[in-house]
Amino acid sequence: MSEPARSDTGVTAPKGFLASGIHCGIRRDRADLALLVSRHEASAAAVFTRNEVLAAPVVLSRAALEASGGRAQAILVNAGNANACTGEQGDRAARRSAEALAGLLDLPPDRVLVASTGVIGQQLPVERLIDGLPRAVAALSVEGGADAAEAILTTDTHRKESVRRVEAPGGSYTIGGMVKGSGMIHPDLATTLAFVTTDAVLPAVVLSAILRRAADRSFNRLTVDGDTSTNDMIGLLANGAAGVAASADGFERALTELLVELARAVARDGEGATRLITVQVTGAAGEPEALAVARTIAGSLLVKTAVHGADANWGRIAAAAGRAGVALRPAAMTVKMNGLTVLSPGFLSDYSEAEASRRLGLDEVVLEVDLGAGDGEATTWTCDLTRGYIDINANYRT
Question: Rounded to an integer, what distance in angstroms lies between the CA atom of residue 326 and that of residue 33?
Answer without folding.
Answer: 44
